[in-house]
């Protein structure tokens, strides 16, 4: 009887070990990337208060996924350390009144609001993005600070990464 229990326990432990060893971590975010020194220095110079920095590569850009002034932010640089864009997640209350009014008066007003971002660029005015969903549709709505709808991008079933504009 004792021998049977021991064998059963040993088999259960082996099965548990096999189960956990069969799991693989395919999360691309865990890949270590080689970030050029010019890029890391550019981040420290531009945003010295950035914390919890995790680097990823998107196309030819190096992106610092970090916390900046209490906001989850992605800061985009090229390989030479040139800053291209900062995208920060915000709340509805952080969206300027003019943008809220424009959205509330738009054809998307009854859609489900998903996420909100503000985008900073070196040479272009700040933009606000409201992500909305309805049924099988998902859009990113790009607004100027004064509430002008600049672009509506259908991102359903696509990579919804917001890339820096080509300049």
Structure commentary:
This protein is α+β, with helices and mostly antiparallel strands. It folds into 2 domains: 32-85, Nuclear Transport Factor 2, Chain: A (Roll); 91-158, Nuclear Transport Factor 2, Chain: A (Roll). It has 3 helices and 8 strands; from the N terminus they run ααββββαββββ. The protein has helices spanning 2-22, 37-46, 97-104, and strands spanning 51-58, 61-68, 71-77, 83-90, 112-120, 127-134, 137-144, 149-154. Strands 1-2-3-4-5-6-7-8 form an 8-stranded antiparallel sheet. A hairpin with a 2-residue loop joins strand 6 (127-134) and strand 7 (137-144). It is globular. The chain starts with a helix and ends in a 13-residue tail after the last strand.
- Biggest sheet record: 8 strands, antiparallel
Number of strands: 8
The average pLDDT score comes to: 86
What share of residues are in beta strands?
35-45%
Could you write a compact summary of the structure shown?
This is Putative beta-lactamase-inhibitor-like PepSY-like domain-containing protein. Residues 1-24 form the signal peptide. β1 and β2 form a beta hairpin.
List keywords for this structure.
Nuclear Transport Factor 2, Chain: A; 3 helices; 2 domains; eight-stranded antiparallel sheet; alpha+beta; 167 residues
């Amino acid at each position: 009887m004792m021998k049977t229990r021991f064998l059963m326990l040993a088999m259960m432990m082996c099965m548990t070990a096999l189960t956990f060893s069969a799991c693989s971590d395919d999360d691309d975010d865990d890949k270590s990337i080689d970030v050029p020194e010019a890029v890391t220095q550019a981040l420290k110079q531009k945003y010295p208060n950035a914390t919890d920095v995790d680097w990823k590569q998107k196309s030819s850009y190096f992106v610092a996924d970090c916390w900046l002034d209490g906001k989850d932010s992605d800061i985009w640089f090229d390989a030479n350390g040139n800053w291209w864009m900062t995208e920060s997640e915000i709340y509805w209350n952080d969206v300027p009144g003019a943008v809220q009014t424009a959205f509330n008066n738009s054809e998307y007003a009854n859609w489900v609001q998903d996420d909100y971002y503000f985008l900073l660029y070196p040479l272009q005015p700040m933009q606000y993005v409201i992500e909305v969903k309805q049924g099988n549709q998902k859009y990113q709505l790009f607004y100027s600070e004064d509430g002008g709808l600049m672009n509506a991008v259908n991102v359903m079933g696509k990579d919804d990464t917001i890339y820096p504009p080509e300049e």
